[in-house]
Specification:
Elements: E1 2-11, E2 14-24, E3 29-33, H1 40-47, E4 55-60, E5 63-64, H2 70-76, E6 78-80, H3 93-98, H4 106-117, H5 120-136, H6 152-163, E7 170-174, H7 182-199, E8 202-206, H8 210-216, E9 220-224, E10 227-232, H9 234-238, H10 241-248
Keywords: ATP-binding, Nucleotide-binding, Transport
Protein name: ABC branched-chain amino acid transporter family, ATPase subunit
Pfam families: ABC_tran, BCA_ABC_TP_C
Length: about 250
């Protein structure tokens, strides 16, 4: 689904991404791992249109999508989860989901929201969809909670839920497990697997928790120093000497 060719992203003289090439196959849950500073987040930001590349190319289903802005990628079904923006934390969990279909930038969302309040049928349909998403994620009981009051892990589920409000094809998840307790991490993992199997979502996941990566991801791509160092199943990766060295070297 996604092919990255010889991608570079330099910050001044510093090569955060330094000639990375990789493929994300349709229907996969691809893991992206690597030591801190390997360039994983920068690579995500370039693919998701948040940073222009210095050079190189990104394709989606054979189409050149290099440098397209996030809202255009959004309409193509390429989504990157992002943290609940501060201005939405006083809204309920359900309202946060209902905001999504208008687009991803704060202003557009607000405009869409105000228009939407005038169109009752559409609002009802959105509300129903939001409630289905909450049920799928097993967090229906949080529908009327303010987003500010839910836990870090529940916020991650809400971020995942936002991708379900539109027709996502591929979802980029950045450190789903950061600061999340084991039980909730399992719930998030289950939701990812079900979205993959039942709704055909392709995922690319940056995560440090190797249990999580091993349970969910195939293949696993390892980055180090801005390049792809290795790729394979989680087991193969963990026995790869270059990979072990890259981790021990930091
Ligand atoms: P990872 O996600 O693998 O930890 P990052 O992509 O966050 O790695 O960072 C790769 C390197 O690029 C790091 O050394 C980081 O300091 C640097 N970097 C990231 N963003 C910027 C930026 N906007 N300006 C300068 N350096 C950056």
């Amino acid at each position: 689904m996604i092919v990255v060719h010889d991608l570079h992203k330099h910050f001044g003289g510093f090569r955060a991404v330094n000639g990375a090439s990789l493929r994300i196959e349709t229907g996969s849950i691809t893991g992206l791992i690597g030591p801190n500073g390997a360039g994983k987040t920068t690579l995500f930001n370039v693919i998701a249109g948040r940073l222009p590349p210095t050079s190189g190319r990104v394709e989606m289903d054979g189409e050149d999508i290099t440098g397209l802005p996030p809202h255009e990628l959004f309409h193509k079904g390429l989504l990157r989860t992002f943290q609940i923006a501060h201005e939405f934390s006083s809204m309920t969990v359900r309202e946060n989901l209902m905001m999504v279909p208008g687009g991803q930038s704060g202003e557009t969302l607000w405009n869409a929201w105000f228009q939407r309040t005038r169109i009752r049928d559409e609002e009802r349909a959105l509300r129903q969809k939001a409630d289905e998403v909450l049920e799928f994620l097993t967090i229906s009981h949080l529908a009327d909670e303010k987003a500010a009051n839910i836990s870090g892990g529940q916020k991650k589920l809400l971020e995942l839920g936002r991708t379900m409000m539109v027709d996502a094809k591929i979802v980029f998840l950045d450190e789903v497990g950061a600061g999340v307790n084991r039980t909730l991490l399992n719930t998030i993992g289950d939701a990812i697997v079900r979205l993959n199997r039942e709704r055909g979502y392709t995922f690319c996941v940056i995560e440090h928790d190797m249990d999580f990566i091993g349970r969910l991801c195939d293949p696993v791509i390892v980055m180090a120093e801005g390049q792809v160092l290795a790729q394979g199943s989680a087991d193969q990766i963990m026995q790869n000497e270059a990979v072990i060295e890259a981790y021990l070297g930091t």
